[in-house]
Structures are given as structure tokens and as C-alpha cells.
Design brief:
mainly beta; globular
């Protein structure tokens, strides 16, 4: 994802720092377990535990820790 906004935590400082989250790829999508990490070019890499269908460029990905929004960005 690009244009990432960090909401309830500070942006991870390096590419090795992964955070465990649940993530939604569209409004009515049920949040799914994933890990996320920042890349050196400023993009966010989200790896879901299970493959997800219909991930679409231009849509939002939102990361959660429980019911708290951690971050969000535009899928690219």
C-alpha cells in the first residue's frame, strides 16, 4: 500500500519490524489475520495468513489491533 497513515501507533522504523494485525481490504470485508511491515520506499507490505480474493488497486487496506485502527493506505 502507498500513502500510509499511522493512526494509533508510530510507524515501524525499519523493514525488519513486522507487526501482527488484522486487516480489511474493503468496507464489508471481515478483518483477517496478517503481518505488516514498512518497505524502504515508504510502501506498506501486508501479508495475510490466508490468501484473500479480489484485492484491488486503488481500494483501501486498513490495519487493526483489536478494534483500534493502527494504519491505513491505498492498495497499489
Amino acid at each position: 500500500a502507498k500513502n500510509v497513515n499511522w493512526v494509533s501507533m508510530a510507524q515501524p522504523l525499519n523493514e525488519e519490524e513486522e507487526i501482527r494485525v488484522t486487516a480489511k481490504i474493503r468496507y464489508k470485508h471481515v478483518a483477517q489475520p496478517a503481518v505488516a511491515r514498512m518497505l524502504s520506499d515508504g510502501r506498506l507490505l501486508v501479508k495475510f495468513d490466508e490468501p484473500q480474493r479480489a484485492i484491488t488497486k486503488g481500494q483501501a487496506v486498513v490495519l487493526y489491533d483489536g478494534d483500534k485502527v493502527v494504519a491505513g493506505g491505498t492498495i497499489c
